[in-house]
Amino acid sequence: MPKRRKSVSYAKWGYVFLLPFFLVFFIFSFLPLCSTVYYSFFQYFRQGLQVIGPNFVGFDNFVSLFHTDLPRYFGNTLLIWIVGFVPQMIVSLLLAAWFTSRLLRLRGQAFFKTVIYMPNLIMASAFAMLFFALFSDNGPVNNGLVSAGIQKEPFRFLSSVWGTRGLIAFMNFLMWFGNTTILLMAAILGIDPCLYEAAEIDGASSGRMFRNITLPLIRPILVYVLITSLIGGLQMFDVPQILTNGTGNPDRTSTTIIMYLNNHMFSRNYGMAGAISTLLFLICAALCLLVYYTLTRNDDSLRMKKSRGRVK
Amino acid sequence: MTDRPEKSGSRLSAARFACYLVLAVLCFLCLFFFYMLVVNSSRNNFQIQQGFSPLPGSSFAVNLKNTLSNANIPVVSGIVNSLTVSALSALFATYFSAMTAYGIFAYDFKLRRAAFTLILLIMVMPTQISAVGFVTQMQSMGLRNSLIPLFLPSIAAPTVVFFMKQYLEGSMPMEIVEAARIDGSGEFHTFNAIVLPILKPALAVQAIFTFVAAWNNFFVPALLLDSADKKTLPILIAQLRSADFLKFDMGQVYMLVNIAIIPVVIVYLFLSKYIVRGVALGSVKG
User: Fold this and answer.
1) How many domains does chain B have?
2) B132 and A274: CB-CB below 8 Å?
3) Whole-prediction pTM
4) B255 occurs within a structural domain
5) Inter-chain contact B260–A143, Cβ cutoff 8 Å?
6) Is residue B281 part of a domain?
């Protein structure tokens, strides 16, 4: 018996199978991350045709980040994210509750799910271009508003602060509420139906069941959606970049952090770009840890559910 | 007592009506803009400037021809480049993620837990944060103006690995692998001939997700690609946006957006059942 175990050790194959992943990860993600952090401590930019640096400057780049517009762009990004995320969460919770309700028994669910998920797969830059064309000063939407008598003259969406921010948030909402609905539905369908049956026998209303059974039990997924959406929100780039042609107009009120990073990348100010990236990395690393904990805790609850099923 | 079920029945149908109403509004929002897109891409510039009409025009073919032969925007090579990058990304991501997931699933080695923990940790890490190092490194590797750095990194796709591992845990009996070993099948042969076919549904779903993500990718290609013949569709759209817009033939603008969006929509409509199920199954997509 011990002889057989020795000859049938396959452990080394684990490393062979994992090699391509970690090799590529090391070359294309880990090394670039390290050099990004490295650059953040250097003065390294281009002035005309001259390359200045790299000169070591310690934390100067980080200090100057806080004296420039970064806090403002951080605020823009979070504000636009929240304006899109709050309705996204409310609508997704409502839809998930309706679709899974055993009382309502809505029909055509497959159709509705197909339609609401579709915007998630759309190229964000093309979607933004479409919105730019549709919502431009004499575009179809303004034509419609004027000829319907709602607006006396065209509403200049892209010259108004909340017109532009609102459009970006609205597009984020449209692109993500279907995805969130499907995730929440899966979570709600994973709840043991016995709980609802017991509550029904006790005479609980469907509103109370939603508040006291559904919400507490899907909290891990809610946290997961919140954090991944926040990470996605911090990456907001394609939509505002195309919609405002990279200017963040009006008056840079819709410039996001990544747009700012992109500007530094294009002017080849690698020191400042590195500092922004390093800050973002620290924030995202903390958020990634949170995701990790919600996922692994989820794993435990999954395992518990499975064993419960087996007992039954 | 007798009227109570009736009353709650009518209340229920009122609630149901309200639900359908809200759903109808949401579906309208999801579909209307794309409907406008398709309609406007079938009308000529003059008709578009006249205002919106709910009926399509007859210039679809003309717009398509003009867009594809536009001298300022290399649309045809853009489509070819986008297709190349997306297809290779999908291929690499699915094959190597299946391999990684199987490695973690099937073999008991020392660093197994550590490897999986690392993959979970970096799963939702944005690519933008390492862009500075990525661009400078590609420059020094001579890959700056090349499509290679756009698809090769998909060999390391943590979300796909996670999905594959979940799928393996649900549907992969190790007994088959052991039987294959007794029959003298090598580990790679077992993976290719037995594990991959079992993973087929997961591979298909993740191939679509990876394809679409690569097709839509804008940030990194915009930093890397300079020459016109290397540009992908999202960059062409950005280029169109920064061109002097009012001088442009609007029919062509809508047509280019159409080319970028509609193929994905069509594929999605055929496979939506599997895709929607895939979203729910993975419970991670970011």
Assistant:
1) 2
2) yes
3) 0.89
4) no
5) no
6) no
